[in-house]
Amino acid sequence: MWYRGAFLSYYLLKRFATLIPVMIGVSIITFLLVELAPGDPAEIILAKRDIELTPQALEEARRLMGLDGPLYERYLHWLRRLLSGDLGVSYSSGEPVAREILSRLPATLELAAGGLLAMLLIAFPLGIAAALYNRTFIDHFSRFTALIGASVPSFYLGLLLISMLAVHLDWLPVMGRGTIRHLLLPSLTLGFGLAATYARLLRAGLLEVLQLEYVRAARARGVRETLVIGRHALKNALIPLVTVFGLSLGNLLGGTMVVEQVFAWPGVGRLAVQAIFNRDIPILQGYALLMAVIYVLVNLAVDLSYRYLDPRIRLGGKEVG
Amino acid sequence: MQCKEKLSPALIVKNLSTRFYTRSGTIYAVNGVNFELPRNRCLALIGESGAGKSVTALSILRMIPKPGRIVSGEIRMNGDDLLAKSGSQMRKLRGEELSILFQDPLAALNPVITIGNQIRETIQSHRRASKSMAEEMALVKLDALKLPAKRVYNSFPFQLSGGMRQRAALALALILHPQILIADEPTSFLDVTLQGQILALLKNELDRCCLSLLFITHDLAAAATVADRVAVMYGGIIVEEGSMRDVFGHPFHPYTRALLRSHPAFCRNGRLEPVPGSAPLITESFSGCPFRQRCSEAETICAEDVPPLADRGGGRFAACHKLPEPAKQIMDGSC
Ligand SMILES: Nc1ncnc2c1ncn2[C@@H]1O[C@H](COP(=O)(O)OP(=O)(O)OP(=O)(O)O)[C@@H](O)[C@H]1O
Ligand SMILES: [Mg+2]
To answer: Looking at the domain assignment, is residue A89 inside a domain?
Structure first.
C-alpha cells in the first residue's frame, strides 16, 4: 500500500538527516587527529622525501598541506577537500589516501564477509542445538565452545590454527590472499570469537520464545516441528540478536585489523597498522573515516532489518521493542 | 451440512490422572477424571480456578509440559487410545481431528507472522496443498466466521481488534474441520458484547458441522447458552455430570449447589454467596472427598473414601457420599 512506502521513505529520510550531525562530529574528531598527533607533519613529510629542513621549505610545505592559518579555517579547507574526495596524500608512499584505501578495501570486505559467514555457520547450529537439547551434553558442549571462543584472543587463536591446520597438517595456506582456501583460516579466526556470544544469545532467546503461548498453540495445531522452530521460534528470537549485532560491529571491524595482521592479509586494517608505525596521519584519518561510515551505515541497515523482522514496528509505527 | 447422528461419544476420558513433579513437590492436578464428550454436542467443563480444567484439556492433546506427566488413564477417540499413540501420530491428529482454542488470542497468535501464513502452514503441515489452494481454504473459513477475509488474511495479529483476533484464532483451530474442539475459556479475555459474538459463532459451528465441543469456562451463563451437558470439576475430579437443564435446575452435589449460589444468574433468592473457603492446591495424594473441608454436610465417611462418580439415573452422575444409594455404578471415580 502506498502509505507504507511513503512511511518508509519518510523514515529513511529522517534517519539520514540524523546522520548529518554524526558525520560532522566524526569529521571533526578525525581532523583533530593531525592536530593532536605529536610532531609536525610538514617536518615528517620533508624528512621522508629527503628535503632539507629549511624554514622556507617548511613554510612552503605547510602552505601546500593546508597547515597554516587558524584551526577552523584549516578544518573547513580540509572538509572541502574531503567532500571532493581528496583525502590527502600518504606520507610514506606519496600516493593519494583514497586510492591506497580503496585498493585494499575489497580484501577487508572479503575477510569481513568470510568472518560473518563463519560466525553464522557456527553460531546458529550451536545455539539452536543448545536450546533444543537444553541441559544435555550438547548444551554443555556449546557452552564450553562459547567460553573458549569468548576468552581466547583472536591473534592467539589465529596462530593456533596456523600451527595446527597450516603448518603441521599442511591442509591450508599459512598466509596471504588469493583463493578461497586462503580465506578459510582468517574467516574462521574472525568468526569463532564472535560466534560464541551469538550462540549463547540465540540459545537464551530460543529457550524464552519456546516457552511462549504461540509456540504451544502452533504445536497444538499440529504444525511441523521444523516450522515451529525455524519460523515461529527463530524469527522472534532473532529480533534482539540483530540489535546486538549492530552494537558489536565494532568487534568485527577491530577483529579484521588483528586478523589481517596475523595472516598478512592485505586489507585496510593492515594498512592502518603500518600507518601507525609510520606516523602516516592521512592514512589513519582515511581509515578512521571509513570505519565510522561503515559503522553508521551498518547500524542503519540493522535498524531497517529490525523493522523487517518485527511487523509491529514496520507497520504499526510503534517504536517500542 | 446436516450431520449423521452417531451415538458413540466423540471422546471418552477414563480415570485420567496428571501430576506435576515440581522441585517443591508433586502437584496432583488431575486425579482420575471420567467423562464422555457426546458427538456433535457441547459439554461444558466448569469449576473454580485450579480445579484442573486446563490440565485436563492439555492431557487430551498430550501436551502436558515438563515436569508434568499423565500417570494413568485412557483417552478414547474413535476407539483408539490417544495415550498409546506415538509423538508423530499425535502431531498429525492435532489440528486435523482435535483442536484447541486458547484463552488469550493475542498470546496464542504469533506476532510476527500474518494470520494467513499461520493458517496456511497449519494446512500444509497436514495436507498436500498448493499455496493458492491453502489460501482459498483460509479465505472461505475466515468468511464463514464473518471476518473481512482478505484483510484478515494479510494482517498481523496486532492489526486486528480483540474480537477479530479470537475469531481468527477460531478459524485456525477449525480450518481442517476437526471432530473435536476444546475451547479453554475462549471468551474470558473479551468484553461482554464480543463474548456473545464468539459464543454465537461456536454455537453456529456446532449446528453446521460435525463438531463436538468441550467448552471450558468459569462463566456459568455462557455454559448454559451453549452446552447440552455439563461436567463440574473440583480438586482434579469430576464431581457431577448431567444435562445442562438437570444440573443447573436441580444440582445434586454440594459443590455444584455452592457454585450456582455464587453466580448472579442462578442464585434463587437473589443473595449471592461465594463458595466458602478457597480452592485447594493439592500437593499430596489424597483420600476422601476433595471438597469435604469446604462442605457443610461433610461426615466421617467423606474423609475416608473418594466418592465414586455414580449413576443417579436419567443420565446424571454425581460423586458424593451423602446422596441416596445410587441405582447402579457404572463409573469408578477413585484415584
Ligand atoms: N505447568 C505446570 N506446572 C506445575 N503445576 C501446574 C502446571 N500447570 C498447572 N499446574 C497446576 O495444576 C492445577 C490445575 O491447574 P489448571 O490450569 O488445570 O486449572 P484450571 O482449572 O484450568 O484453572 P483456571 O480456571 O484458573 O484456568 C493447579 O494447581 C496448577 O497450579
Ligand atoms: Mg485454565
So the answer is: no
Residues of B in contact with A311 (CB under 8 A): 111-112, 114, 156, 158
Cis peptide bond upstream of B67, omega within 30: yes
CA-based nearest distance A106→chain B, Å: 36
Give the residue from chain B lying closest to A307, CA to CA: B112
Q: Tell me, yes or no, whether A264 lies in a domain.
A: yes
How do the domains of chain B map onto residue ranges?
A: 11-97+179-328, 104-177
CA within 13 Å, CB half, A318: 9
- Ligand 1 pocket by Cβ (under 6 Å): B 20, 22, 27, 29, 47, 49-55, 65, 68, 218, 281
Of A52, A83, A114, the residue at which a domain comes to its end is A83
CATH architecture of the domain formed by B11-97+179-328: 3-Layer(aba) Sandwich (3.40)
Contact B138, B123 (CB under 8 A): yes
Q: Please give the ipTM for the structure prediction.
A: 0.89
For A51, the domain range is 23-83
Atom number of ligand 1 nearest to Cα B236: 14
What's the pTM?
0.83
pLDDT per position as a tens digit, B146-202 = 999 999 999 999 999 989 999 999 999 999 999 999 999 998 888 888 898 899 999
Report if residue A99 sits inside a domain.
Answer: no
Dist CA B57 CA A142 (whole Å): 36
Interface of A with B in 207-226 (CB under 8 A): 212-214, 216-225
Mean pLDDT for the stretch of residues B313-319: 92
DSSP track, B11-62: EEEEEEEEEEEETTEEEEEEEEEEEEE-TTSEEEEE--TTSSHHHHHHHHTT
> Looking at the structure, do residues A243 and A314 belong to the same domain, yes or no?
yes
